[in-house]
Amino acid sequence: MSQDVPERESTSISARFQGHDFLLACCVPWTPLVADREKDLDRSFRRLSQVVGTSPHLARIHFKIMVGDETRSWTLEVGPEGSEISAGFVHGPDLELIVGEETWWQLARGELSPLEAFGRGKMRVIGDLRVARHLVAERLKDHKVSGERRDTHGAYDRERRGIGRD
Predict the structure, then answer these.
(1) Does residue 100 surpass a pLDDT of 90?
(2) Is the pLDDT of residue 129 over 50?
(3) Whole-prediction pTM value?
(4) DSSP 8-state class, residue 29
């Protein structure tokens, strides 16, 4: 005997957020920043800086990663000249993201979207959400957003999966 599923629950994320690009982009996992088993936080943040690229809007985003009893921090500065990542806290971030280490790896591997992490209580966001909105808007100019995972950096994704290696 089949059960009826309410139409709202059976609709795809892309259909539900049609016309709300910011929400839709937050629902889609990031382009993978690391290989499946990689655990190098510094490298993941350098990759994030490369993926973010430039933005006409200046922004300073602080990432606080809870690693056991320790806190590790990185600051991403974004602007028209590009993105730069630095280890540590820089005073006066526009936006701060706080996550546990395992949640960071899920985000960095493209297994968990930022909205899912936030909705599950695995990520705290403090500061000016307009900063996130501007970054997402810039990303949307260059990449089509859909309810499915995007491969915006195909060569990197193929490399991490071992495609094209001799």
Answers:
(1) yes
(2) yes
(3) 0.70
(4) P
